[in-house]
Each structure stands twice: as structure tokens, then as C-alpha cells.
């Protein structure tokens, strides 16, 4: 199994519901990539993978969980000068929409 040739920081975000918001704080420009478990496995094997996010030029960055499931957040230095210091926190997710009664 080959690995990515650049340094990265991995955050296991565990099970999250759709609409949950992740806030990522960075000390420098880096890539911020949010991916499901299958794509994280492909990332670790240096295969093509899909993700939400991209180059983070400003900090903090907010990403929204697109669907329920187990999520991984990667901060990596691919294409940049070094690996940024980073921190991650979950912000309160929007409440589920309430059904309104017809009057």
C-alpha cells in the first residue's frame, strides 16, 4: 500500500448528521478535505478520492456535513510550503425542520 507523499493531519469526526458544521482553524494556507470513510481509505492508499473542501486561504474555514455517516477531516500540505497547525471543533448543527400544522 502506498501512502500520500505529503504530510497531513487526520481528524476522525465519527458519526455526524447531515447539516452539522465543522470549523477548522489553520496557522497557514493548507488543504482542508472532508471525506467519508471509503474516500479516506482511498486517500491513504494514494488513489483517486472525493471530498468536500479544498485550499483554505482564510481561517477559520467552515464545512457542512453533506449527508449522515462517519466522516474524516484531513488538513494537508500538498502544493504548499508546510503543514499548518490546525484545530477542529463542531459547531451546533441546525435543528431538524419542524412540521407546521395547517390551520
UniProtKB/TrEMBL annotation:
<dbReference type="Pfam" id="PF08980">
    <property type="entry name" value="DUF1883"/>
</dbReference>
<dbReference type="InterPro" id="IPR015073">
    <property type="entry name" value="DUF1883"/>
</dbReference>
<feature type="domain" description="DUF1883">
    <location>
        <begin position="6"/>
        <end position="94"/>
    </location>
</feature>
<protein>
    <submittedName>
        <fullName>DUF1883 domain-containing protein</fullName>
    </submittedName>
</protein>
<dbReference type="InterPro" id="IPR036488">
    <property type="entry name" value="DUF1883-like_sf"/>
</dbReference>
Amino acid at each position: 500500500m502506498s501512502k500520500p507523499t505529503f504530510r497531513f493531519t487526520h481528524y476522525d469526526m465519527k458519526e455526524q448528521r447531515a447539516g452539522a458544521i465543522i470549523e477548522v482553524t489553520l496557522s497557514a494556507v493548507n488543504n482542508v478535505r472532508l471525506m467519508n470513510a471509503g474516500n479516506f481509505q482511498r486517500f491513504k492508499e494514494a488513489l483517486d478520492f472525493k471530498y468536500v473542501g479544498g485550499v483554505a486561504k482564510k481561517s477559520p474555514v467552515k464545512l457542512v456535513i453533506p449527508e449522515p455517516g462517519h466522516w474524516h477531516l484531513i488538513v494537508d500540505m500538498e502544493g504548499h510550503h508546510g503543514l499548518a497547525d490546525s484545530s477542529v471543533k463542531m459547531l451546533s448543527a441546525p435543528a431538524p425542520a419542524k412540521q407546521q400544522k395547517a390551520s
